[in-house]
Design brief:
17 helices; 9 strands; 53% helix; alpha/beta; single chain; flat
């Protein structure tokens, strides 16, 4: 999301401003270190903090928990900077990863530490930041001042956002997070001067396209100028690192999940006639066709039927078998694509690969559709956790907006966020057909 900044304006401080101020990193670090690092040390030392600090395990444990709190805050802020994120969901993963990293470090380097203090520190950190984000979320409203002529297309998709339309070049009395302008338009001189004054006063000024992308998690497709095209190029170094991590993850998964997939395959054969494995040609990385593997969820005659309509799965599609509905709801039918990952054709996370006949249709109907081939397709992705399954041209265009946002923000943190939210998607059955 747009980075949390000091609200500006001449309005009086209110409860909303005070609650959101608690999310500033300086306050988070101060509260976290005092409550989750110093307080457990006082408890462990029975009130004698300095005496406990002088002990070998005491000093190392205090420093270790302080580092864990700092890492936890850093991880949490990275995961919650993307749109559509419920901050409280990521407190446990963020601090679990941070404290787990520190415990592993202590174990590998054989450092003395207090298990009691680490456990108490972890529990306090979870409780503190869960309450902190829960309270802040209740009052969270992003208030922006909007210049005349700004097209707020997609504003209906934003949540907890208040738009204040300006009719004169002066800041509103209400506290705001920033000013939104269309910086590609030729503005009157007084409005140009107003934007300059805002920048000099430290008031953030956002281009409308940048603001809407950050608030909705979608990249609107209008045209791809050289500048836009360059901004959508994914990080090449991370592409290579992710490819290697995908391969090792798939290698481990194929051994762990092999017996489970064999049992599911037997159940599929008993449920309906036909092979357990379904093969289909799809378009993948750099526009190259490849054979994707899935557990069969439809009757044989339906899965072999050709044509564009047959390639689209509708709600409550009668072609789906009994066990197929369960497999689709839990996404277990996608697991054989581990083979595709081992072959370098897919990734764990990325835009979903489309059937060739649908890809040809979408390429003819939608501008810039092939640009999604710039990264490897994935078993799960940003569009899947935000939108679910699609079946119409309009829904595909929506998915393309999400895919472009993923490519533009291609990073480890976004992949971690998608991984965590995929678990919730699987448990809820969101978007399954």
């Amino acid at each position: 999301m747009l980075a949390l900044k000091d609200t500006v304006g001449s309005g009086r401080l209110d409860s909303r401003w005070l609650a959101l101020s608690a999310l500033r990193i300086r306050y988070q670090l101060l509260a976290g270190l005092l409550m989750a690092s110093v307080l457990p040390a006082v408890l462990r030392g029975h009130g004698d903090l300095m005496g406990y600090w002088d002990s070998t395990s005491g000093r190392s444990t205090v420093l270790g928990t302080a580092m864990a709190v700092t890492l936890g805050i850093a991880f949490l802020r990275q995961l919650t900077r993307f749109p559509g994120v419920n901050d409280t969901y990521y407190v446990l993963p963020s601090f679990g990863l941070a404290y787990g990293t520190m415990m592993l470090t202590f174990f590998l380097f054989r450092l003395d530490y207090s298990r009691f203090q680490f456990v108490v520190s972890f529990a306090i950190a979870l409780g503190l930041f869960f309450v902190l984000y829960l309270v802040a979320r209740r009052f969270e409203v992003y208030r922006f001042a909007v210049l005349p002529g700004v097209d707020l297309r997609g504003q209906s998709r934003t949540r907890n956002v208040e738009w204040i339309r300006l009719d004169q070049p002066s800041l509103p009395t209400a506290a705001i997070y920033g000013v939104i302008a269309d910086l590609r338009r030729d503005l009157p001189e007084d409005w140009d001067r107003f934007i300059t004054d805002c920048a000099l006063k430290g008031v953030p000024v956002f281009h409308v396209k940048q603001a809407m992308e950050s608030l909705t998690g979608r990249v609107e497709i209008e045209h791809l100028s050289e500048n836009t095209l360059g901004s959508l190029l994914p990080n090449r170094a991370y592409l290579r690192i992710k490819e290697l991590a995908d391969w090792f993850g798939a290698l481990v998964a194929i051994f762990l999940l092999g017996p489970f997939l064999l049992a599911i395959a037997v159940a599929i054969r008993l449920d309906s006639k036909g092979p357990a494995l379904f093969r289909q040609t799809r378009i993948g990385y750099r526009g190259k066709p490849f054979t994707v593997y899935k557990l069969r969820t439809m009757t044989v005659d339906a899965s072999e039927r050709a044509g564009r309509e047959a390639a689209i799965t509708r709600d409550r599609d009668p072609r789906v078998t009994r066990i197929g509905r369960l497999l689709r709801r839990t996404r277990i039918d996608e697991l054989p694509q581990i083979i595709n990952i081992l072959r370098g054709e897919m990734s764990w996370i990325g835009p979903r690969p489309e059937v060739r006949i649908l890809s040809e249709w979408f390429e003819a109907a939608l501008p810039f559709y092939p640009y999604r081939y710039i990264v490897r397709p994935g078993i799960t992705g940003w569009a899947q956790i935000n939108q679910g399954h699609v079946g119409t041209e309009h829904e595909v265009l929506e998915k393309l907006h999400y895919d472009f946002f993923y490519i533009k923000n291609y990073s480890l943190w976004l992949d971690i966020l998608i991984s965590i939210r995929t678990v919730g998607t699987v448990l809820s059955g969101f978007g399954a057909r």
